[in-house]
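P.,

For your records, the input lines for the assembly:
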Amino acid sequence: MLRLEALHKRYATGEVALTSVDLEVPKGQVMALIGPSGAGKSTLIRCVNRLVPPSGGRIFFDSQDVTRLGSRKLLKMRRKMGMIFQEFALVERLSVMENVLSGRLGYVGFWRSFLRKYPQSDIDDAFRLLKRIGLDHMVDKRADELSGGQRQRVGIARALIQDPQLLLVDEPTASLDPKTSRQIMRLICELAHERNLACVINIHDVPLARMFAQRVVGLRLGEIVYDGTPEGLNDDVLTEIYGEEDWHINKYARKAARQESSCEKEETAKPAAMSV
Amino acid sequence: MNSIIHPPQTWVRQPFIKSKTVRYCIYAGVVLYIILAFNTLEVNWVRVWEGLPRGQKFLAGFTPPDFISRWEEIVDGVLESLWMTVVSTVVGIMISIPVALGAARNIAHPLVYFFCRGIIAVSRSFHEILLAIFFVKFFGFGPFAGFVTLSFATIGFYAKLLTEDIEDTSASQSEAIQATGASWWQWINYGIQPQVMPRMIGLGLYRFDINFRESAIVGVVGGGGIGATLNTAFDRYEFDSAAAILIVIIAIVFLVEYTSGMIRKQVQ
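Structure tokens returned:
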């Protein structure tokens, strides 16, 4: 369903985020993408919907080459890829309902969306999803009034109302407490199973990846170093991915992480991984 | 026990300019310049002394302020100024919004960016009075010249500050809207506009404030409004009426500033 061929990304700063990634994700599979900060996880999923333009290689989705799509076709393609963000990325001054309905923007015309006159079917869908995530009593609350877990639920609803075939999930639990993290991961996976969606989840937290994913891919310095079952994640593999003993690589990863994003918590997965 | 006595460690703040000579040369230069500058003023203290009673008479001419004999002209002037202010603020903001979108680095194409930055720079480089003198020559005396002046000046102010706010918007929120497959305008409407709305309202009210004050000045050079009324009063040596006009201007400025402050607080 989703197939990456020799995907390469080099930023304008000269930093190479992805060297050459080959990856295939079949329909209905929940795949966790793990790796240290700066390994290129975020870049990888952003290349898929071209929020970040890839600099080489190909991305096939739904039997079309995403990298070659014109801008209009790209917008159409993005509708089929729901994205869930780290720190939720809800539009804070919009209401819960507006945030959910914004997932339909790719389907409705400008004036309809501008006047907030969405088709009744979209509204029905939105209510159904809000009920499913347990927020149907908060329809008109502003997004910045919600708690972290509630916000991420709205983020999930926004992605699902797109009626996607693929979910791109970027660190969904990065700013949530352990219990809420589990609930959010469970919700994402349940919904993905119900709708038979392919799902790529970037995640720092290795135990969570073990708990919920059917397949784990380890990324290090822009290269895939592990691709297998969650059970296969032993200490050696984790060392391979995170380079626990190799300080040179760690230093490099830290440096890259600082350049890439200051929001990402540094290597929160590592102590957790060692304790397992 | 450890009986070694450590000498007290001293610390002084590092001077901004490291070299002592350079530092003292700069100080001396500044002092010298100020002394020279004062010397060019050439104040004739004898004349100042002789002029004092005349100044007193002039100020006395302002009291008591006369609201009555020119009341109709004052009302006309105020209404014209308010009209000028409202229309120029609205028109200025309507032009500013697309300019601001074009001038925001995180949204606009580089070519559009430079073009829009150019518009802002031109608008900002002239003071309202210079613009007013130019437009009065261009369109003739009257409120239309004032309206054009204020609209044009509004662009530089409003577009510049709105641009800064657009550039400060959260990238993740707008990215999330892009990821849904939204078109450009939808992206602006959902991803950017909600984030800058409070600032837009606040700046609009603030500019309304400024435009009313400027409308008085613009009138003095021929742009119509209460400023023209004020100018006429001065020309006719009707200082008591002029005082009345000044009081009316101050009152309205206070009122506008107070209300716009209240509304801005509500929005933010």
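Two observations worth noting. Residues 263-276 of chain A have pLDDT under 50 and may be disordered. Chain A has eleven helices and ten strands.

Regards
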